[in-house]
Design brief:
Helix content is 41%, strand content 17%. The protein is α+β, with helices and mostly antiparallel strands.
Length: 693
């Protein structure tokens, strides 16, 4: 928007080899002259947008072009007399942006807003006029991509503009689609700018726009933006990569021959498929060269196989792995587990008899369309809205394409009123290039960046209530809050009942999401007395010891022998037990399943038959694991006393990462009451597990 432009031949990044193959080459000066001739008759489309109409009809044969004609006439009239810095009429910029989106398959509303995206910002056209002429949807999108006034925001204008666009994108992803196409055309035509301004724009593109294009799945825009940024910020590496590609162009390329072999294999298997050779873009070649060193001919591209159905993808994979030698480490299934940006494909690599290794991508044609165009390929996200929702203008619009990372950005930006904080945290968040999905205990899901911990999951699920989080179970097992999560984990977050609970300063070392870090920092700033580490020095276990008994109601078939219940397994009636003679003539009693039984037999201990007395009382040792909190020991012993159970001894170990381990030896009046006792102990707030020793 308000794009600074130049002659496309004036800068290396505008060279034809960087343009996406198959893109229509347009003479923008000719289109500009056509625009200056004024509007055409009302019964036909203006010549200047003929290319846009042709590209649009290729994806949407039944599209109504009258809306595009009206939008073009308003844009051309409004921008008439304005020139780009290259000397081209300004109307060439919205035309080029709209053509980019049309080639990606954008629907008519997006193209209409794209033609008008600079009118409110750079001309006398108002949002009210756009709304009256084109409706609320087009008006909302145009407003979303309109920059805030620099006179009002000063140095904060750029971050606040991006904040405004992100908020608008949360309601309609087409806002960001237009912004990405706008930046792509500006980057193509950046050469007349001063080198320092080129570098500044390229850095913002690298840090913000390219990650956004990746997250929205618009690979066609992302790859070209990467190459353009590469040429500006790393000119030496760009030139060496260009020379490497040029040298390869003069050599024999093995990929076409491999592609012919793949076609023959699939034809013999009866799988209809289209096989293409896809050259790598500049940045991809540069990355491969840094990873592999000297490149071979098959490293400069990949083979793309397009089929009709999902099942055909796996059929192709089976044929490739049968007829060629597969490189197992290169196989990835993004169909069964799609990437967070909608991407789906099968990736593999096969070795040929000549010794070449070719990477192969297998996908359906619909997957290919989404892989190239991302959210643009999804069309109008509101087209399937119910008539009832459409009839209610006050109904909040929920975009079904709104991904988890965008929801997180929208949440934390509300807690980052300072533009500098927002700008720095936005870049840090977008630098996270992978996302994982974890399952909540209630069946919902959480989208988190790779490397996120249980702390991040707590704030993603509970917001500020996560200040009271005292632990988590991951896949059913207790773990510390600092534990990182993996894709597909199930996480259950445990909150303290004490309203005064708060996060520890150490949480900041393990929080990865901006929402978590901002919330923790804000709480610590408002509670300076709690900002110090809550980790206490190691201390000895607390022990409470009562009268110790011996073997309870276990009886050994050995006259006058002292019977002891083993502390390792604490058997109680009606457990199956085994007795062994130990030093001092005592008999120790173990549960049959206890590991010590095998050890006793292995060392030759004398086995002694034991049985239970008819009395119902018994002694048992229970282990309770909990999260540290005040009065926990008192609450546990009270729960035990309510069950009519005597505490023989108790040991409480020092806390480790807020977790506390208790050991209780208890005398029960009736062994049948053990399950109820264990349930009562688990019901004590903060206790997450109780088990036999």
């Amino acid at each position: 928007m308000s794009a600074e432009a130049t002659n496309p031949e004036a800068h290396p990044e505008a060279r034809p080899e960087l343009r996406r193959r198959g893109r229509t080459r347009l003479d923008l000066r000719r289109l500009g002259r056509a625009a200056l001739l004024g509007p055409t008759s009302r019964d036909r489309l203006p010549d200047a947008i003929g290319h846009v109409a042709e590209a649009h009809r290729a994806h949407h044969p039944d599209a109504d072009l009258s809306l595009l004609r009206r939008a073009y006439l308003l844009a051309e009239t409004s921008h008439r007399g304005q020139m780009r810095k290259s000397g081209e009429p300004y109307i060439t910029h919205p035309l080029a942006v709209t053509l980019i989106l049309a080639e990606l398959g954008a629907e008519t509303t997006t193209l209409t807003a794209s033609l008008l995206h600079d009118t409110v910002e750079d001309t006398e056209v108002t949002l009210d006029q756009v709304r009256a002429e084109f409706g609320d949807e087009v008006c909302f999108i145009v407003d979303g991509v309109t920059k805030v006034e620099k006179i009002d925001y000063g140095a904060a204008a750029e971050p606040e503009t991006f904040r405004k666009m992100l908020v608008a994108t949360g309601n309609d992803v087409r806002v960001m689609s237009i912004k990405l196409a706008d930046r792509l055309h500006n980057m193509r035509t950046l050469g007349v700018m001063r080198p320092e301004k080129q570098a500044r724009i390229a850095k913002v593109t690298r840090d913000v726009l390219i990650p956004l294009a990746e997250r929205l799945g618009v690979q066609a825009l992302k790859t070209e933006l990467e190459d353009l940024v590469f040429a500006i910020l790393h000119p030496e590496e760009y030139e060496s990569t260009r020379a490497l590609i040029a040298a390869h162009a003069g050599e024999r390329d093995p990929l076409p021959g491999i592609a012919d072999s793949v076609r023959a294999v699939l034809r013999d298997a009866g799988i209809p498929a289209e096989v293409q050779v896809r050259p790598r873009h500049f940045v991809s070649v540069h990355r491969i060269a840094r990873t592999r060193g000297e490149l071979r001919g098959s490293d400069f591209g990949r083979i793309l196989v397009l089929v009709g159905e999902n099942a055909d993808c796996y059929g192709v994979l089976g044929e490739l792995h049968t007829c060629f030698t597969p490189v197992v480490s290169e196989f990835k299934d993004f169909i069964a587990t799609p990437k967070f940006n909608l991407y789906q494909s099968l990736h593999t690599a096969v070795a040929t008899p000549e010794g070449y290794v070719a990477e192969v991508i297998v996908r359906t044609r619909q997957m290919h369309r989404v892989a190239e165009a991302g959210v643009v390929a999804l069309g109008n996200p509101y087209a399937t809205a119910t008539p009832e929702a459409a009839a209610d203008p006050d109904e909040e619009r929920v975009d079904p394409t709104r991904p988890g990372w965008l929801s997180r950005l929208l949440d934390w930006q509300q807690s980052a009123p300072d533009p500098d904080t927002f700008w720095s945290v936005l870049r840090a968040e977008l630098a996270q290039d992978r996302e994982i999905t974890v399952f909540r205990a209630d069946g919902g899901t959480l989208g988190l960046p790779a490397g996120a911990s249980c702390i991040d999951a707590a704030y993603a699920q509970h917001g500020e209530a996560a200040h009271g989080c005292i632990g988590a179970r991951v896949n059913g097992r207790l773990t510390s809050l600092s534990s990182p999560l993996s894709d597909g984990d199930t996480v259950q977050l445990l909150l303290a009942q004490d309203a005064s609970s708060g996060p520890a300063a150490e949480w900041l070392d393990h929080a990865r999401t901006p929402a978590a870090r901002i919330a923790i920092s804000s709480w610590l700033e408002s509670h300076p007395d709690r900002a110090l580490s809550t980790t206490s020095a190691a201390r000895a276990p607390l022990s409470v010891i009562g009268a110790r008994g011996g073997g309870g109601n276990a009886v050994a078939d050995l006259p006058d022998a002292t019977v002891r219940l083993a502390g390792c397994c604490t058997p109680v009636p009606p457990d199956a037990v085994a007795g062994f003679l130990v030093r001092g003539g005592a008999v120790t009693v173990h549960r049959i399943q206890c590991a010590a039984v095998a050890q006793m037999r292995a060392v030759g201990r004398t086995s002694v038959a034991v049985h239970w007395r008819a009395t119902a009382d018994c002694r048992v040792t229970l282990l309770a694991e909990s999260f540290g909190r005040p009065h926990l020991l008192a609450d546990l012993t009270e729960a035990i006393a309510r069950e009519g159970v005597e505490v023989v001894s108790a040991t409480v170990e020092p806390p480790v990462e807020q977790r506390v381990r208790h050991s209780y030896t208890l005398q029960l009046p009736d062994a049948a009451g053990l399950p109820a006792l264990m349930r009562a102990m688990r019901d004590v707030p903060g206790v997450y597990d109780v088990r036999r020793a």
